[in-house]
Design brief:
Elements (H helix, E strand, L loop, with lengths): L2 E2 L1 E2 H4 L4 E4 L4 E9 L10 E6 L5 E5 L5 E3 L3 E2 L3 E6 L3 E2 L1 E3 L3
Parallel strand pairs: 1-10
Antiparallel strand pairs: 2-4, 3-4, 4-7, 4-8, 5-6, 5-9, 9-11
Length: 92
């Protein structure tokens, strides 16, 4: 049986966007499982919906992640880890 990931960043609206330049932001979030436990080493992929450019980072041991500066725009956020159901959230 696969557990599904809870993506705190998307589901509870606690994403943090830090401006790192005139046209760039960083996205920070936390990935937890349904029990609230942190999910380390989950793959976080942000896909720019206009250009198709992908930014990929991984969660740390506490389930946290921060992207490098990305160009502002509309993105699809994907979260995956072996043994868990992947999540995809468009239009961020």
């Amino acid at each position: 049986m696969l557990l599904s990931l809870s993506l705190l960043t998307v589901l509870s609206g606690t994403a943090v966007y830090a401006q790192v330049g005139a046209d760039r932001v960083a996205v920070t979030g936390l990935v937890t499982d349904p029990t609230g436990a942190a999910v380390p080493d989950a793959a976080i992929t942000l896909v720019n919906q206009d250009t198709g450019v992908k930014t990929v980072v991984a969660t740390d041991g506490a389930g946290n992640f921060t992207t490098p500066g990305i160009i502002q725009g509309k993105y699809t956020l994907q979260v995956s880890k072996e043994g868990f159901k992947a999540i995809s959230q468009p239009d961020l």
